[in-house]
């Protein structure tokens, strides 16, 4: 089969298209003939060697295609080996494309619990773009934060796949959503997509500006920080608010004012990609028509994965980048 193979760690140029053997048959696993594979920032970290993937290796977490044994159109949940405890993943948990060969290929093999029927009405690109960001946002906003109708939500870092999905999911849950963004264009795109408003997190005083545009100027009920700015994000919370953190691509350390934190009665919630149960909850929202379609910024042929990575790292896109077979 054709695949994009990581033969060394480094920049986008290390992603090479070549022929490799098809995945072997295993009891309890299914093979999917992929039609589309979506990119995630996680793929960049795998490419850079941050997860110690074995070499040579096929990266890629997100995908949609046709189940070979049944002919069913499916989407793939990238959470492997979650385990029986819904509160947190088992020690064996990993993300598809970390160590198990991923979706930058014509075929992929995954545990049977990690496939679900492709939502009706979604294109292959949209279906492939849904699972990782969708289940991650569902776990963050529903399972962890318990976001409720009428609450206010601030999303840090509008433009990427997580942020655009969180905006859609927040609206589906009946929340009022605001954003921070790195550029006026991204903020304006988020507002056009349904956000109430936004501020630029390139401004030094952005937490104060964000608080000023929150309901009654008290701060937000929930803040979703997928980039690692939560040492400052917490300053835009209302007293008793919840800060949900799930990423660190901007910063991997945060300085906190401890007294301000506990006097503010804040909750700090760490979260990861979701479980099979979270995935079922997400797909139920999609089936009921409550969740808008994933935003596709651009598509590339599978063989052009290196160029797709360059676009992803440029940070200029709004929405998901997808590889098509």
TrEMBL record:
The terms under GO molecular function for this entry are: oxidoreductase activity
Report the transmembrane regions from the record. Answer: none
Q: Which InterPro entries match?
A: ADH-like_N, ER, GroES-like_sf, NAD(P)-bd_dom_sf, Zinc-ADH_QOR/CCCR
Name the domain of life this protein comes from: Bacteria
Pfam families per the record? ADH_N, ADH_zinc_N_2
UniProt keywords, alphabetically: NADP
Stored SMART domains: PKS_ER (SM00829)
Q: Which Gene3D superfamilies is this protein grouped with?
A: Medium-chain alcohol dehydrogenases, catalytic domain (3.90.180.10), NAD(P)-binding Rossmann-like Domain (3.40.50.720)
Q: What is this protein called?
A: Alcohol dehydrogenase
């Amino acid at each position: 089969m054709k695949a994009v193979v990581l033969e060394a760690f480094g920049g986008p140029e290390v992603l090479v298209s070549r022929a490799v053997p098809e995945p072997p048959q295993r009891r309890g696993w299914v093979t999917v003939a992929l039609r589309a594979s979506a990119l995630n920032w996680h793929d960049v970290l795998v490419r850079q060697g941050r997860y110690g993937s074995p070499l040579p290796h096929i990266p890629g977490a997100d995908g949609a295609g046709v189940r070979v044994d049944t002919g069913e159109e499916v989407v793939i949940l990238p959470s492997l080996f979650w385990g029986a405890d819904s509160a947190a993943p088992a020690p064996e948990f990993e993300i598809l494309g970390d160590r198990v060969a991923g979706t930058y290929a014509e075929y992929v093999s995954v545990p049977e619990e990690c496939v679900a029927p492709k939502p009706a009405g979604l294109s292959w690109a949209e279906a492939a773009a849904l699972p990782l960001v969708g289940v991650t946002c569902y776990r963050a906003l529903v399972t962890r934060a318990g976001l409720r109708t009428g609450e206010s939500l601030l999303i840090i870092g509008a433009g990427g796949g997580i942020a655009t999905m969180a905006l859609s999911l927040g609206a589906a849950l009946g929340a009022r959503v605001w954003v921070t963004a790195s550029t006026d264009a991204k903020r304006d795109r988020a507002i056009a997509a349904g956000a109430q408003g936004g501020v630029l997190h390139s401004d030094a005083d952005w937490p104060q500006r964000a608080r000023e545009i929150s309901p009654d100027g008290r701060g937000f009920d929930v803040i979703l920080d997928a980039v690692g700015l939560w040492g400052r994000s917490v300053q835009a919370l209302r007293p008793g608010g919840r800060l949900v953190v799930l990423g660190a691509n901007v910063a991997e350390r945060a300085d906190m004012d401890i007294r301000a934190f506990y006097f503010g009665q804040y909750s700090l919630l760490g979260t990861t990609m979701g479980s099979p149960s979270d995935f079922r909850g997400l797909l139920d929202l999609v089936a009921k028509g409550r969740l808008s379609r994933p935003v596709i910024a651009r598509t590339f042929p599978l063989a052009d994965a290196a160029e797709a990575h360059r676009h992803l790292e440029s940070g200029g896109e709004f929405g998901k980048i997808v590889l098509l077979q």
